Amino acid sequence: VAKRLEKFKTTIFTQMSMLAIKHGAINLGQGFPNFDGPDFVKEAAIQSIKEGKNQYARGYGVPDLNSAVAARFKKDSGLDVDPEKEVTVTSGCTEAIAATMLGLINPGDEVILFAPFYDSYEATLSMAGAKVKCITLRPPDFSLPIDELKSAVSKNTRAILLNTPHNPTGKMFTREELNVIASLCIENDVLVFADEVYDKLAFEMEHISVASLPGMYERTVTMNSLGKTFSLTGWKIGWAIAPPHLTWGVRQAHSYLTFATSTPMQYASATALRAPDSYFEELKRDYSAKKAILVEGLKAAGFTVYPSSGTYFVVVDHTPFGLENDIAFCEYLIKEVGVVAIPTSVFYLNPEEGKNLVRFTFCKDEDTLKSAVKRMKEKL
Ligand code: GLN
C-alpha cells in the first residue's frame, strides 16, 4: 500500500458491520437506515432507467439536478447560486470531500480538523499531502475551544474542515461559534470546507450554513448529499457548492476521479430534492421518536449520554461499566450483549482522547432500537 495510506486500516464502519453479521448482533454502529427511502424517489429512478437515461451524465451533473440542488440551497440558506457554474454533482459527499481536498489543497498546505472527525477527512487529506492540525471538541457539550482555534489559525492555514451537524457527537455549531470561525478565516484568508450532510436532521436548533455568513460564500465549499435526508445511503449522490474559482478545482479533481455520476439516480435525486416541506417535517418527527427511544434506553442502561442536537448519532461515556477503553467496551458489547456501537478513538489524531466515548446510531426502525435497548438494560 502507498505510504500516504499506510496508517489507515479497514474503516471502522466496515469492521464493525462485519462483526455485527458474524455475531448476529444488532447494528447500531454504521450509520445506514434499516428502512427504505420514499417510494416517489424510487419510482423516479425506475422511470428514468425505463426512459433510457442510462449513458454518461454531464460531468458536473445532469442539468435538472444542478438546478434542484441550487433551488434547495436557496430555500435552506438564502443564498443564490448558479447551478451551472457553482454546483458539482459527485458520487456521494465522500467524493465531494476527496475532490475538494485534491482539487484545492497543495502538498504541505495546513488544514485544520475538529476531532473527533469523520475518518475519510484525514485519509483524503493524506492523499492530498496536507499537513493536518487538530482541535479537539470535548464533552460534555463539544463546544468550540475558541482560544485554541485562535492560536492554531495563521496565514499558513489553507483551510478549516467544518462538519455541522457533527458526526459522531451530534454537536451543531452555534451562530456565535461560526462567527468566530468566519472572522478568523477572513482575517487570515482561509477556506472552509463544510460537510453538512446531516443538515435535515437538526433537532434542537436551526442549522446554519457557514457559507451564508457575511464574507464567507467566496471562501467556502459546502458539501451535502441525498443519502441521509432520503434514507438512500447506497445511492451515493452528493454535491459541492462553491463560487466559480473554487468550483474549478473541485471539478478538475472530480473529472479525473469519477468523471460523472450515475445518470438515472441523478434524475431521481432531482425529484427527491423537490419534495414538499411535509416530507422533511415528517423525517424529523420520525427521527425524534427514534432518538427518544435510544437516548432514554441508554440512560436507563447506565450510560452517561451527551446531548446531541443533530445527526442520527449520540455519543456516550461507557466508563460506568469498567472496561478499559472504547475498543474493549465495543468488543464486550458485541459478544456479551449483542449490540454494535462505534468506538470513537479512531476519530482522533491521539486515540487516547476518545477512549471513554462510543457512538450509537438511531437510524433504525423502532423495534430494532427497542430490542437493542432491552439487551443493554438486561445484560450490561
Ligand atoms: N457515514 C456513516 C457513519 O458515520 C458511515 C459511512 C461509511 O461506512 N463509510 O456511520
UniProtKB/TrEMBL annotation:
Record-level GO cellular component terms: cytoplasm
Needed co-factor(s): pyridoxal 5'-phosphate
Residues annotated as transmembrane: none
Molecular function, one GO term: pyridoxal phosphate binding
UniProt keywords, alphabetically: Aminotransferase, Pyridoxal phosphate, Transferase
Ranges where the Aminotransferase class I/classII large domain occurs: 26-375
UniProt protein name: Aminotransferase class I/classII large domain-containing protein
Taxonomic source organism: Capsicum baccatum
Taxonomic lineage of the native organism: Eukaryota, Viridiplantae, Streptophyta, Embryophyta, Tracheophyta
